[in-house]
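Ex. 9. Protein: G patch domain-containing protein 11.
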Amino acid sequence: MSKDVKPGVSMVRRVKEAVKKESQHQETNVKNRQKSFKEQEKESREAALQNSLSSQNKGFALLQKMGYKAGQGLGKQGAGRVDPIPLNIKTDRGGIGMEEVKKRKAEEELENYRQKARASQQNETKSLEDFRSRVRTEREERKIEGDLRRSRRACEQLDSQKGISVPREEWYWPNEEEDAPKDEEEEEEEEEEEETEQLTSFDKLQILTSYLRGVHFYCIWCGTTYNDEDDLCSNCPGDTAADHE
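Predicted structure tokens for G patch domain-containing protein 11:
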């Protein structure tokens, strides 16, 4: 039985493989040459930087003709630069001046961060001061309200002992209705009355304690009824809560 033999097929395949190998070999050689050229360039540059200029260098030869001697500084007085300007090789794709732009941008970002940090710290400090001030104010208001309630109870008791059946002012005596539960309508009416009220709790406390001291010779902070005005002035520290601290 005869075989169908095609002698040209094997030869074509061998030619293609040879061409492919040759192409790969050429690419490898090109890469090696490029790598070798970069390495040689780097070595040559480093060697040149380590060696001093000789008279064969045109620039150095020109300086020697002008009177320059190796090792001395530039300029007429020899006070200028002695060493060459350092070589700064760029390895990135940034243009000239890009480093300064990056540096300036980094400094601006740092300054912005510092400003934000300072502003945040100032806001926190102010918030803390406001909170402390608000707490002090609320504490003082509660103390004034408590002193006013004690003064009104004392006023009612002392007035009654002297046979006074009606307070000089309605608010001089405690009002039981103020402590009783209130519905929404009563609360709204009281809010309207408070808006029209001229005297604050502090004003009322000053007026009422002055009345107690002048009429009954009584000091709510001492908790004592004195014999007369002279006894009050001699033994009471003062007419305010701060005087008794």
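Check your answer against this statement. The first helix runs from residue 7 to 50.
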